[in-house]
Amino acid sequence: MMAAAVAPQKRWREAPPSARADHLYPVDIKGGKPEALEEEAHSYYTKILEEPSSAVEFLSIPGRGKVKLEAPLMHFLPLYKEDSKHKLLVLIDPQDKNTVLAIYLHSSWWLIEDVMKTADHSREGLKQVQTFEERIVLFVLNVIIFGMLERSLTHDVLFVPHSEKECAKIFWRSGDAAAFYTVKVKGSLCDGYSSQCYMLPVLDTMFVRKKFRRGGVGMKILHDFCQTFAAEVALGLSCPVSAVMYQVCQRFLETHPEEQSRLWEVEAPGDWSQRVSIWLKIQMEQKLQKKSDVSCYMKRLQNDEPGQSDEGRMNQKVAHSPNKALPYEAEEFKDDPEETRKRHYHSSRTHSSHVKALEEDMM
């Protein structure tokens, strides 16, 4: 039985009940041909354009009420990179033009959250993307959820759809698509503009949805990547790798020391001159951090006056400026120490990465 897609509703009819666990979602529907789905979408869109205004339909959005189904809010998005042939009809949020509310599939509008679900209990953990319906899930994870809904404004990744033949896996957890990662296979072309081919398997893009973080998904993805290409001497992560992704790598390599010599940060096509050992870079960063900490400590000792306690120095400053508040009083003594620490931590974080591994809670 097919899940209760949120069908368009005439006037103000009540929304249908939510789908039960034994119902099918778009990814579960077998045998759907891309051409047939796109033809259905074009026919529906044409009908919306031609219908008189008296036949207005609405889509129920949980927690939002009803959204009017009208042509200006509908757009066709390309499903694949460098391919304008296959497109999806999406409904844009009238309050935020950068947000997609639903996708038109199998003659019905499906909310984004429902497109991300499955009723197939065998879909658990990391599964290879094989069917056209799974390609749609990958597209939604990459372009809509990551690119439009959960992407940090300071993130510098260019969000484009993957290619039709992209080697990808989706991580399923309890009926939801929670994450994905894609790989540039050894021997595959680097791009469509040259004859250069990847010289090693490269983990190219990776993303974990916010509500599924802090569950070790990033570690599972790295382990799966290494196990999938167990026969390879070297494996790559697409450059640049973010500081957060390096944290995931550090934890993974400390847990799996046998992989320390295999992981490299690489630029395409991955020649030895284009590789940096991830484990070596982690070790060097740790040594530099320790050296910096020692240097700062020594400077503090040199600046301190011998034989005088912190309390004495503080009292001395107060004596010199009896009517002036200490500059650090508001920052250190009035604020909660834990909050001060958190502010310092967050202000020092960096954001970059072609590998879309977000937040330390992926580990």
TrEMBL record:
Residues 329-338 have a biased composition (Acidic residues). Residues 302-363 are annotated as: Disordered. Transmembrane segments: none annotated. Residues 342-354 have a biased composition (Basic residues). InterPro entries: FAM169. This is Family with sequence similarity 169 member B. It comes from Podarcis muralis. The lineage of its organism: Eukaryota, Metazoa, Chordata, Craniata, Vertebrata.
